[in-house]
Design brief:
The chain has two domains: about 210 residues, D-Maltodextrin-Binding Protein, domain 2; about 180 residues, Periplasmic binding protein-like II (D-Maltodextrin-Binding Protein, domain 2). It is about 45% helix and about 15% strand. It has 18 helices and twelve strands. Helix 7 packs across helix 17.
């Protein structure tokens, strides 16, 4: 079919270009071949296969500096953080693929070394999260892929919006279980999806709750008011609560609710499933008016014995060719050039909207105590949504303490 053909052709061209670029690192005229070294990359699992493909590209072009995964961590971002902390502390990895919110913690513990970004075209909203304070062109990590929630809308009709407001969506839907999102806490993945979903709903009512630099508003009444529409919609049976993005997708495919909040990569999964509604244009993807920025980034472990080679590998993985491969597998790229590629635009019709969503999204609190904050936030908001208790001043005090 045309979509599959164009994607294969595009990725084939990107791979050829990327292999040449990677090989040029060590095969420049007059250069010398460094002694063989092995680079160890600690990362979470990637069911799309994109990272494995890029790793194979690198290894084919750089046989004297092969890279390998140390141990792909299954589970959520909290599970990944725990394993990556261990790898950074015991020196079993040279490069760490960190959730962007964990960068401050690893930096505070002196587990990673600042690097320079060689490509000037990283999206500013993404690049700025990695900046070392008061140090120009010094970054704690290089953005590998970014992420932001999107709204999947079945049969949106002729009047298609440029962006959507979640509180308005919940107010207008009439049917039972018309909306599905990651709104049931799941301890196996530290509830990060739940936390981001809650923030998105709160920001749709009051965008001042989280600043463009990830600073929270520590006032109780605005939080109570901001989460009331979601609480009311759940009470009215409008919302199907799922534990994670995979469960949400299964519900969206099987039960055909009108709306699904999910990550951009799930559009690619719908393509792979040959979902009838997607193939016939009945499913559209829209940016949220107030999104929350996510993503993963490659950091140089402080104990890495081969920092120069590791930096070259990081440059390759975050370069233009690699970013286009990641985008072709459903990830949100971090370089502006990838969003301008016509072949990618042909297979990802909402690519321009995705870029806008990334550029307008707010980061979560970039603080070494983020994971403690996350536990507090999830505990209080989950009990509130279940009707067990209201948000109280204890909620504000606990968030303040975690981010002190």
């Amino acid at each position: 079919m045309p979509e599959q053909y164009s994607r294969r052709s595009f990725l084939s061209g990107v791979l050829t270009c990327g292999a040449v670029s990677a090989a040029a690192v060590y095969l420049l005229p007059g250069g010398h071949r460094p002694p063989p070294v092995e680079l160890r990359l600690a990362t979470g699992a990637d069911p799309t296969g994109a990272r494995k493909l890029l790793l194979d590209m690198w290894n084919q072009a750089n046989p004297d500096t092969p890279a390998r995964f140390t141990d792909e961590v299954e589970g959520g971002s909290g599970d990944e953080r725990t394993r990556l902390l261990t790898a950074a502390r015991n020196g079993s990895a040279d490069i760490l693929n960190l959730d962007v919110v964990d960068i401050p913690e690893f930096a505070a513990q002196k587990l990673i070394t600042p690097i320079r970004l060689t490509d000037p075209n990283f999206l500013a909203s993404v690049r700025n999260l990695h900046q070392v304070d008061d140090t120009p062109n010094s970054y704690w990590a290089a953005p590998l892929n970014t992420d932001v929630g999107m709204l999947f809308w079945r049969n949106p009709g002729a009047d298609q919006p440029d962006e959507v407001n979640l509180s308005v969506v919940l107010d207008t839907v009439a049917g039972k279980d018309s909306f599905v999102g990651q709104l049931r806490p799941n301890s196996s993945n530290y509830n990060e999806g739940f936390l981001v979903n809650i923030l998105e709903h709160a920001l749709s009512v009051n965008p001042d709750l989280l600043s463009s630099t990830g600073e929270l508003l520590f006032e109780l009444k605005p939080w109570q008011r901001a989460l009331q529409p979601l609480r009311a919609a759940i009470g009215a049976g409008k919302v199907r609560l799922s534990s994670d993005e995979n469960a949400s997708l299964e519900t969206f495919v099987a039960d055909k609710p009108t709306f699904m909040r999910n990550w951009p990569v799930k559009y690619r999964e719908l393509q792979q499933r040959k979902d009838p509604d997607l193939l016939t244009g009945r499913i559209k993807v829209y940016p949220l008016k107030s999104g929350v920025l996510g993503g993963q980034s490659l950091a140089l472990a402080r104990t890495c014995p081969h920092p120069e080679q590791a930096r070259r590998f990081i440059d390759f993985m975050t370069g233009t060719a690699a970013q286009k491969v990641l985008a072709g597998h459903g990830f949100a790229p971090t370089l502006a050039e990838a969003y301008n590629d016509r072949n990618l635009q042909a297979v990802i019709p909402h690519l321009e909207a995705l870029r806008g969503a990334v550029e307008n999204a707010r980061p979560r609190p970039m603080h070494p105590g983020y994971r403690t904050f996350a536990e507090v936030f999830v505990d209080h908001t989950a009990r509130m949504l279940r009707g067990e208790s209201d948000l109280t001043s204890e909620f504000i005090a606990a968030m303040k303490a975690a981010l002190a």
